[in-house]
């Protein structure tokens, strides 16, 4: 149980909440304003609006509280540090967990929940190819101060680059090409055309379900596996780094093939 959590009685006294509606799911959540809570900062980002900040929290696996002030979005997870903030801070609640019927001041659309369908691995035999294709998209894996993972195809100046993942920028008709997306929080990658909907961002990158060449170049020669790293998020790796080797890792049993993958720490 979260220490310092606002009681259900005090929640009823609040007249403002935010109702979030998912387009493709019969499920709603609310963000309820609070002033005191116990948690731990996940990370901070500069964002354009409070709506985007709240969507980032929803998309982030561990976000429980979120605040927005002067274009700074601060995400908090459950923890033991006590906070009393001047800016409005919200607590995420699923309506199924609430014992009251909230009257909300406004509604904000969420990204839809899309179910990932596992993609069968195709050809894994050795291929003959040379060098990288001319068009490559690099997606960086970043560590926050607490080693929470983020992914972006641009430089995030406030975070430490941990790994680079090179993807083909164009699909290949002779291979099973898998487009790569991310969500508002950039906390994981999403693979497949099912994520080509509003709320997800295409990273101009393609992975492949099997080994793949493109005009003699190595478009998909390096296998990466998706791991869930408990307490830190997701990782897409071809080899386990020493900082991850003895951590609580769960292999998601999904493999893709890309141009290259290199640890930078």
Give the rounded overall mean pLDDT.
Answer: 81
Helix coverage percent of residues?
under 10%
Outline:
elongated
Oligomeric state of the chains in view: single chain
Which residues sit in consecutive blocks of at least 5 with pLDDT less than 50? Answer: 1-17, 20-27
- Backbone CA Rg: 20 Å
Number of helical elements: 3
Helix/sheet category? mainly beta
Largest sheet: 6 strands, mixed
**Number of E-state strands:** 18
Number of domains: 2
Terminal CA distance reads 36 Å
Beta-strand residue fraction: over 45%
Order of helices and strands: HEEHEEEEEEEEEEEEEEHEE
Signal peptide: 1-25
Keywords: Signal
Protein name: PAN-3 domain-containing protein
Organism: Cylicocyclus nassatus (Nematode worm)
Question: Main attributes?
Answer:
265 residues, mainly beta, Hepatocyte Growth Factor, 6-stranded mixed sheet, 4-stranded antiparallel sheet, elongated, disordered N terminus
Description:
By secondary structure, this protein is mainly beta. It has two domains: 8-110, Hepatocyte Growth Factor (3-Layer(bba) Sandwich); 136-263, no CATH class. The protein has helices at 8-12, 50-59, 242-245; strands at residues 18-22, 28-46, 65-69, 72-78, 81-94, 106-110, 136-143, 149-152, 160-168, 177-182, 189-191, 201-208, 212-214, 217-220, 222-229, 233-237, 249-258, 260-263. The strands form five sheets. Strands 1, 2, 3, 4, 5 and 6 form a six-stranded mixed sheet that branches. Strands 8-7-9-18 form a four-stranded antiparallel sheet, with no helix packed on it. Strands 11-10-12 form a three-stranded antiparallel sheet, with no helix packed on it. A hairpin with a 2-residue loop joins strand 3 and strand 4.
